[in-house]
């Protein structure tokens, strides 16, 4: 049996397909007599389209990722799916007018007109390879491209068995694909490394029939679509195979895309989400049918990482786990550190990790982190069921800067129950944060995603859900079928008004604009703490904290504290600080907030200055220029350091 797996646009071009890499290995190892190859049709498309249009790396990224919630990538290939170069162009233009700039609208319509020719060519190549089975993966904006190719393959060679799977085929989505597109013979729903080999074995006439494969959609004798029950549970981690990326790097090297991207390996240590098992974030639709967290043994995961790095001589890696297995901090990551490999890895983490844990990530090369921050207000974070506070998220940004991690995060709004009062204190404090990693984009209103609590539980605030409008001009299906096919849904807006959104986004835009030149760091010299600032909203450049009370308070605010908790710890200080009154503590906190030294939310405070060992500051004797008085005589306990350098010494890069 010859099996061909196809990775259609708009799969990212800088990454091999993890799904197809795993399926290739599962076929080669678990299906006797079968051979498996992967066709990187996303790279084929890149070469094809760049020879015909002014198509760029930025364009590909837009259709693959940036336009996901607009559906532009899927609409492009709907013309090939329905064999009509002008498919619903008027509807697309009407809806997208004002959402797309003119050049983007022009490019999208041009691609829409041209891609049927590409699909016909790639289908001919598939048929010429003479596979017995062709499998298409579908994730994000691959759905119409995969369906269009499957349709054309079936038209050219009806005897070839067509199979689809991937995230767009989970649960009811996969059942809808199978019901509505009869040229797809089978749909694998859920984890494919077990179901796909079982299907192939059944097609060989050995052992079970397709009807026995859990989650599989197949056709009865009369052509009716039949959806087998989903598996009763997820695969155990020992059953999750490492990927086989044979052919990807060689094909990339021959593609124009080699000039666009630095390729990365994709590795997987775990599936599911240990936080989501206990508290499913209300807006999150990840993990589909199986939230249960399971991770590979440390030895297995470490060896997979090292083997892939050695085999492909690539050190950049993308870890696809939805959340880090915290046990890896003491098992896998120390071994990576000791290996001497200069890995550079991207991973998703929880935002309440401590500095020491972040340092382990940095030392192991996991320098690009996505901590799921989403908001800086504790009440809104509670509405999300995130399990962190606003001050903890700020601590994450600060400690990531200190440990050399680059943080990728989004600001979200539109949660039922949120108010302008939740956002106004954050907006006022944004100028103090300019030295920390800003969100990757302006704040976005949340989308309602399938499998999320907001989708499954209308009592949380969203009712009357409909598939997003782009599904309606992409597919020729009734809305009831679109409801099962869609992943993103439109709903009445909840939460804050556009007036508050505009204020928030104006603040974020200034943050992003000023971040590259902004600095705030501190150096703890034992008997004093020196701070250096370069932020637009604050006119001070250096400050020296020399009073023991100030020094103790600043060190305690390394972690979030309420004023009362800070007072209690200061009065319990074993170094013999004089008793402190609540008013003294509050006066100090107010002064530091005014100077942008602390962030406050929900009654808590945390300082904003990453640590910096700054040799220029160490050479200056600030104490010689600071006249110390009893605290009761100091209306402002944060004393400007004198003399102030004309140009502050540069702090280490924070991003």
Main attributes?
655 residues, alpha/beta, five-stranded parallel β-sheet, 26 strands, 39% helix, 13% strand, globular, disordered C terminus
Q: Level of helix content?
A: 25-40%
Query: Nearest-angstrom radius of gyration?
Result: 28 Å
The tally of helices reads 25
Distance between the termini: 51 Å
What does this entry look like structurally?
With 655 residues, the chain is an alpha/beta fold. Helices cover 39% and strands 13% of the residues. It starts with a strand and ends in a 15-residue tail after the last strand. The model is unreliable at 614-655 (pLDDT under 50).
Q: What is the secondary structure topology, with strand pairs?
A:
Blueprint: E1 2-6, H1 18-30, E2 35-39, H2 41-50, H3 57-66, H4 72-81, H5 89-96, H6 102-128, E3 133-137, H7 143-156, E4 161-165, H8 171-180, E5 186-187, H9 192-203, E6 217-219, E7 225-227, H10 248-253, E8 265-267, E9 270-271, H11 274-278, E10 294-295, H12 298-312, E11 316-319, H13 332-339, E12 344-348, H14 355-364, E13 368-370, H15 378-384, H16 390-403, E14 406-407, E15 412-413, H17 420-429, E16 444-445, E17 448-449, H18 453-456, E18 466-467, H19 469-474, H20 479-485, E19 488-490, H21 498-514, E20 519-524, E21 529-534, E22 542-545, H22 548-556, E23 561-562, H23 563-571, H24 582-594, E24 598-601, E25 604-607, H25 615-618, E26 639-640
Parallel strand pairs: 1-2, 1-3, 3-4, 4-5, 8-11, 11-12, 12-13, 13-14, 15-16
Antiparallel strand pairs: 6-7, 9-10, 17-19, 18-19, 20-21, 21-22, 22-26, 23-25, 24-25
Helix pairs in contact: 1-9, 4-6, 4-7, 6-7, 8-20, 12-13, 13-14, 14-16, 17-21, 23-24
């Amino acid at each position: 049996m010859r099996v061909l797996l196809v990775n259609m646009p708009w799969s990212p071009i800088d990454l091999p397909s993890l799904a197809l890499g795993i399926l290739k290995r599962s076929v080669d190892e678990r299906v006797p007599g079968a051979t498996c190859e992967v066709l990187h049709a996303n790279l084929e498309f890149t070469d094809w389209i760049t020879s015909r249009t002014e198509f760029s790396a930025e364009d590909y990224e837009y259709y693959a990722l940036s336009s996901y919630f607009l559906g532009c990538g899927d609409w492009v290939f709907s013309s090939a799916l329905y064999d009509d170069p002008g498919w619903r162009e008027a509807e697309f233009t009407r809806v997208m007018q004002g959402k797309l700039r003119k050049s983007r609208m022009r490019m999208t319509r041009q691609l829409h007109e041209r891609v049927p020719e590409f699909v016909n060519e790639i289908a001919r190549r598939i048929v010429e390879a003479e596979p017995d089975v062709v499998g298409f993966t579908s994730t994000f904006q691959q759905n119409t491209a995969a369906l269009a190719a499957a349709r054309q393959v079936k038209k050219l060679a009806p005897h070839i068995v067509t199979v689809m799977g991937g995230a767009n085929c989970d649960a009811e989505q996969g059942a809808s694909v199978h019901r509505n597109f009869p040229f797809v013979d089978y749909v694998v729903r859920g984890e494919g490394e077990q179901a796909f080999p079982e299907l192939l074995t059944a097609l060989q006439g050995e052992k079970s029939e397709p009807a026995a494969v859990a989650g599989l959609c197949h056709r009865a004798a009369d052509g009716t679509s039949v959806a087998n029950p989903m598996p009763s549970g997820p695969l155990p981690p020992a059953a999750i195979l490492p990927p086989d990326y044979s052919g990807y790097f060689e094909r990339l090297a021959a593609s124009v895309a080699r000039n666009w991207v630095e390729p990365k390996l994709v590795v997987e240590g775990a599936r599911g989400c240990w936080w989501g098992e206990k508290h499913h974030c209300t807006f999150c639709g990840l993990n589909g049918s199986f939230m249960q967290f399971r991770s590979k043994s440390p030895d297995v995961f470490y060896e997979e990482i090292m083997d892939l790095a050695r085999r492909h001589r690539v050190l950049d890696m993308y870890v696809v786990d939805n959340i880090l297995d915290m046990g890896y901090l003491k098992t896998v990551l120390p071994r990576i550190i000791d290996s001497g490999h200069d890995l550079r890895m991207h991973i998703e983490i929880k935002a309440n990790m401590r500095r020491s844990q972040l340092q382990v990530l940095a030392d192991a090369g996991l320098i690009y982190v996505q901590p799921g921050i989403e908001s800086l207000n504790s009440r809104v974070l509670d509405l999300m069921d995130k399990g962190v506070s606003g001050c903890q998220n700020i601590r994450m940004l600060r400690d990531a800067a200190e440990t050399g991690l680059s943080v990728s995060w989004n600001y979200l709004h539109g949660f039922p129950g949120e108010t302008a009062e939740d956002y106004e204190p954050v907006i006022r404090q944004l100028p103090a944060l300019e030295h920390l990693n800003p969100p990757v984009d302006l704040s976005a209103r949340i989308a309602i995603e399938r499998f999320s609590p907001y989708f499954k539980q209308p009592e949380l605030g969203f009712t009357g859900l409909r598939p997003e409008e782009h599904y309606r001009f992409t597919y020729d299906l009734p809305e009831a079928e679109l409801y099962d096919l869609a992943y993103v849904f439109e709903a009445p807006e909840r939460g804050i008004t556009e007036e508050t959104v505009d204020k928030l986004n104006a603040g974020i835009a200034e943050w992003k604009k000023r971040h590259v030149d902004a600095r705030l760091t501190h150096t703890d010299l034992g008997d004093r703490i020196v701070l250096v600032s370069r932020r637009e909203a604050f006119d001070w450049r250096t400050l020296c904290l020399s009073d023991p009370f100030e020094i103790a308070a600043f060190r305690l605010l390394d972690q979030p504290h309420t004023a009362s908790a800070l007072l209690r710890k200061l009065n319990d200080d074993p170094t013999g600080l004089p008793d402190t009154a609540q008013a003294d503590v509050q006066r100090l906190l107010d002064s530091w907030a005014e100077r942008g030294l602390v962030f406050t939310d929900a009654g808590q405070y945390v300082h904003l200055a990453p640590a910096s060992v700054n040799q220029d500051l160490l050479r200056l004797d600030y104490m010689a220029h600071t006249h110390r008085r009893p605290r009761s005589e100091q209306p402002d306990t944060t004393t400007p350091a004198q003399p102030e350098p004309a140009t502050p010494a540069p702090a280490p890069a924070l991003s």
